[in-house]
Amino acid sequence: MIIVCIGIGDGWMECARLAAQRMSDMTGLDHIVIDTMFTPAPTPSWLKAKVCEKVDHESLMIMDADMVCVKPWKPQELFESLGRP
Prior knowledge:
Order of helices and strands: EHEHEH
Largest sheet: 3 strands, parallel
Distance between the termini: 13 Å
Strand content: 15-25%
Structural class: alpha/beta
Number of strands: 3
Strand order of the largest sheet: 2-1-3
Shape: globular
Helix content: 25-40%
C-alpha cells in the first residue's frame, strides 16, 4: 500500500507534502504527492477518481492535502482484515 496525496494550486503542493509526510510517519507507508493535472478534470479533487491510472501500485490510500494524521495506525492491516479483494 502506498499513500497518494494530491496537491495542485497555490499553496496546496506544500500542504500535500506536509500532510503526506505526516501520514507516512504515522503509518509507516511510503507516499507520493501528485502536483500536476495528469488528465483533464474540472478540479484537482476529481483526479482521485483517476489516480489508479497514474500510479502503478497494487493498493493505494488516497488522501486529501488538508488531512492531518494525529496518531499512529496500520491501514494495511485494517484493509487486509476486511477480507475483500
